[in-house]
Amino acid sequence: MYYHVNGELVDSSNASVSVRDRGFMYGDAAFETLRAYGGSIFEWEAHLARLKRTCETLAMPDAVPGDLANRVEETLAANDLEDAYVRVSVTRGEQPGKLTPHPTVEPTIVVIVASLPRGGLDGRSIWDEPAVLRTVKTRRIPDEALPADIKTHNYLNGILARLELRRTQRGDTIADEALIRDLNGYITEGTTSNVFFITDGTLCTPSLDASILPGITRSVVLSLAQKVNIPVETDHYRIEDIHAANEVFLTNTTWELRPVTTLDGIEIETGAMTDRLIRLFNQRIEQFY
Ligand code: PLP
């Protein structure tokens, strides 16, 4: 495999960043997970905008290189990949000394890719297995401490939530995703996904001010639903709201739409509206081929 590190294509076995890179040392970095279908990046502009916004919040507004799209294309081409997972990281760069970061430090820019074909019988993704979702006790770090709407290398909140799933596992099944609430008990999102549920024909998902990452897939799903006049509601929800739902699914770039079959031990059918949204999403993807 070839990766792109600081403007150079390098063999993945030689791809490295400094042990003093602040992304490694402190999680002082922005990233995006993207997906290529038929050689083109899905929702590139939205991902680029979110990456830039994260970098602005981290006070490194010029860190995203102007030729980032070319770097991604070159990496896909070097690996002969059309359907791929792509990850772009922008770190603050190497810590020049022991003390505070030097203002002229150069960002580190890394593009890594992996083959990610679409599989499954009806054109769904290889993450087609429905998910088991479980509410955890681990709460979302409040926005006032670490804003949820930026995508940084700091994923320990979600990692601790996933570790809680393992620690408190009953029987053989470890849940696929943890549902995280904020300190007031409102639903936020999964550790790497946004959550949707359907109640009485309305598609519901926590609103952007509910301590969530504004998922690109979330926004695609909302606009697909609005186009076909599915009633949509975004709000602050409690666990009881989602427990009473008829259908539940998760979204992220790699999973696309992933139905939830079990939530906190409650069995849920994959219903007609989830299926319909998956079909609409698939139609969007088919345009790439
Ligand atoms: N929420 C969190 C915390 C995530 O890490 C992700 C993606 O990794 C998402 C939501 C979904 O975002 P997207 O649809 O842009 O992949």
TrEMBL record:
Query: Which UniProt keywords are listed?
Result: Aminotransferase, Pyridoxal phosphate, Transferase
Q: Name one GO biological process term.
A: amino acid biosynthetic process
An MF annotation (GO) of this entry? transaminase activity
- A Pfam family found in this protein is Aminotran_4
* Signal peptide stretch: none
**Cofactor(s) recorded in Swiss-Prot or TrEMBL:** pyridoxal 5'-phosphate
Q: Which Gene3D superfamilies match?
A: 3.30.470.10, D-amino Acid Aminotransferase, subunit A, domain 2
InterPro entries attached to this UniProt entry:
Aminotrans_IV (IPR001544), Aminotrans_IV_CS (IPR018300), Aminotransferase-like (IPR036038), BCAT-like_C (IPR043132), BCAT-like_N (IPR043131), Class-IV_PLP-Dep_Aminotrnsfr (IPR050571)
Tell me which family the UniProt entry assigns to this protein: Belongs to the class-IV pyridoxal-phosphate-dependent aminotransferase family.
Protein name per Swiss-Prot or TrEMBL: Branched-chain amino acid aminotransferase
Which species is listed as the source?
Halalkalicoccus paucihalophilus
